[in-house]
Design goal:
5-stranded mixed beta sheet, alpha+beta, 622 residues, globular, 44% helix, 8-stranded mixed beta sheet
């Protein structure tokens, strides 16, 4: 349990970033402070005057965490990164997040194009930038199209060569019409190489040509053309001020440091993605007698990266570890690309490692007991579930639930837990498309089929594009599927997996008469689980979360007026008959269980309408 008053006493008088969480552990606010102790305490003082918005936020705070930095400026940058990464509810967000522009050349295509991009992706394109002037980028792209005659269309070439007429750019001599086969791929590629040479900063040749054309136009008294050449020259010079090329979107690295005290150790990991520090995590470790920090770091590297799906290109440590070269080779074999393990000695990298170590020391000193309890609630709980089911290596669990009102407008939810913690970025919701009426089994079959077919298609697409194997919400499959029910729900999941030739353990969460989980259903048998165990509590949290997520989605649809009674979908049942049925039976269960004879005796009903109602609720269910 997180005791706010106790945790406030532990706050350091240092600059940093604080992160507020609600009861569902979602991040609802991120802020920076010159003094964490003074700033965070202000939120919980009785005499506070924060304004209505922040007063509402404070009421929802269940816990907070913080990251210590070396300066307020560092805190400012980290705050910005975390806000963009997590989009907290109570932070003011810039809706139109206009990042600095890049120039993108689609080098992976047979006939590349040049265009503006607001972000970089992990593809085969080449990116130049970022640049501060969007106008200069636009001018240079227009200039390069005129000079190198690159196409502007989005046609799939060479597949679509000759299928359509050439566009206007061909007729104004700004494109050599590769769509018609008027230029060979090799000749077009030569022009692309010249373009890349220009974008790499070799501007002298182009500037000379532009100056000659400007003077020539001026001598001919074509002053408008001369002015255009002058403006293009200025754009080329301006964009050259901040030009650099990268074949990948920024730097991906993990920064790792450990702090030790007796037999206890805390390892702090900072995650840098696309060159930005976007978050951190800390891990409590119990060290063996006589273990030193090198041994702690070495053990952590092997255990952490054996289970995490993403491995960065660089891992920075505070000191060299045992078997460092061997660990690097192992990581390379998992990633399929070179992985560098380094120990920075100076500059900003060393400061980042030092900041990670400083935060690890604070956590170890102030939060040691809380971390132990948290480890028990998460990783320890997962271990208990593994032991109950006879499994190992369970990192990712997915749970599913179906929600509807009176059997109408069914929706499905998918929630994801990794290492015992919710991973909300991977949650997904489904609107049931193929099932009419109250049929939870058929709805669940649709949800699972769509989820795994989508994931298999994305995997194949990434394989064909030879993209780095970075898992997303659908491409990464679970180590364990949890169904909100017993034998029936489990069998539905197993049938879907069997059809798709997938092998994933499926476990049901069996409920008692009071709709409380009483055990697990696995391998055709019910396994009892102690209600006092952390494993049981984790199962209950996952079950509640799947149910909550489905209900919230259904509620959002109802708020849009998209949900009505299931009786509206029965032919021949209008408003009068619907009211009569509900008045007599008080609910759908009574209607579902009634015979044709009973239904036909209801006011305003006849035998034909009764038969339609009966048939609707007694369709063959699986």
């Amino acid at each position: 349990m997180f005791h706010i008053e106790e945790e406030l006493k532990k706050l350091p008088s240092l600059p940093g970033v604080y992160i507020m969480h609600d009861k569902q552990d979602a991040i609802i606010y991120v802020g920076k402070a010159i003094s964490l102790k003074n700033r965070v305490r202000q939120y919980f003082q009785k005499s506070r005057n924060l304004g209505i918005k922040k007063e509402q936020m404070v009421e929802q705070i269940a816990r907070f965490e913080y990251i210590v930095t070396d300066s307020e400026l560092e805190a400012l940058v980290l705050e910005s990164n975390l806000i963009k990464e997590h989009c907290p509810k109570y932070n003011t967000m810039l809706k139109d997040d206009k990042n600095y522009p890049f120039i993108k050349v689609t080098a992976g295509e047979a006939f590349p194009r040049i265009m503006t991009a607001r972000s970089m992706k992990k593809d085969k394109s080449k990116y130049f930038g970022p640049y501060t002037s969007a106008g200069a980028v636009k001018d240079v792209i227009e200039l390069t199209r005129k000079l190198y005659h690159l196409r502007t269309c989005s046609r799939n070439l060479p597949r679509d060569i000759g299928k359509e007429r050439p566009c206007l750019y061909y007729h104004i001599k700004q494109c050599d019409a590769p769509c018609q086969g008027y230029i060979t791929e090799s000749a077009y590629r030569a022009q692309v190489e010249e373009l890349l040479d220009f974008l790499n900063g070799n501007h002298k040749k182009i500037l000379t040509q532009l100056e000659e054309k400007m003077y020539e136009a001026s001598e001919k008294m074509e002053f408008e053309d001369a002015a255009q050449y002058r403006d293009l020259i200025q754009s080329v010079k301006k964009i050259g001020e901040r030009q650099k090329i990268t074949d990948h979107p920024g730097e991906d690295k993990d920064i790792i440091a450990a702090a030790m005290e007796d037999a206890d150790a805390v390892v702090q990991v900072f995650f840098v993605r696309d060159g930005k520090l976007i978050g951190r995590d800390h891990f409590y470790m119990k060290s063996a007698p006589g273990e030193n920090r090198k041994g702690i770091l070495s053990s952590f590297l092997k255990q952490f990266y054996a289970g995490t799906p993403f491995i960065p290109k660089e891992i920075m440590l505070q000191e060299e570890v045992e078997d460092q070269e061997l660990i690097a080779k192992w990581l390379e074999s998992r990633k399929g690309k070179k992985v560098r393990i380094s120990v920075p000695k100076k500059g900003t990298k060393e400061k980042l490692v030092e900041m990670a170590y400083h935060n690890a020391k604070l956590v170890l000193r102030q939060d040691k007991e809380r971390i132990k309890r948290e480890e028990g609630r998460t990783i320890g709980a997962v271990k208990e579930i593994e032991e109950l089911l006879g499994l190992s290596g369970v990192q990712r669990m997915e749970a599913y639930d179906i929600s509807n009102i009176s059997g109408f407008q069914s929706v499905g939810s998918m929630v994801v837990y990794e290492k015992g913690k919710p991973k909300r970025s991977d949650y997904r919701k489904f609107k049931i498309k193929s099932v009419q009426g109250p049929n939870d089994y058929a709805s669940m079959e649709e949800v699972l089929t769509r989820r795994f077919i989508h994931g298999m298609d994305e995997r194949e697409e990434r394989r064909q594009q030879q993209l780095e194997d970075e898992f997303g919400s659908f491409t990464r499959f679970p180590d364990l599927i949890l169904m909100d029910g017993g034998r029936g729900q489990v069998n539905i999941a197993l049938e879907v997996l069997d059809k798709l030739h997938l092998s994933i353990p499926v476990c049901g969460m069996v409920k008692d008469d009071k709709h409380r989980t009483r055990g697990l259903y696995y391998n055709n048998q019910e396994i009892p689980i102690s209600r006092d165990s952390e494993g049981f509590k984790l199962i209950t949290r996952i079950q509640d979360e799947a149910h909550r997520f489905a209900i919230e989605y259904h509620r959002s649809l109802r708020s849009k007026g998209q949900v009505h009674s299931v009786l509206d979908d029965i032919p021949g049942i209008g408003e009068t008959r619907r009211k009569a049925l509900m008045k007599h039976f008080k609910g759908l269960e009574g209607i579902r269980e009634a015979s044709v004879e009973t239904l036909s005796n209801i006011e305003s009903m006849n035998e034909r309408a009764a038969r339609q109602v009966y048939d609707f609720f007694h369709k063959k269910e699986r």
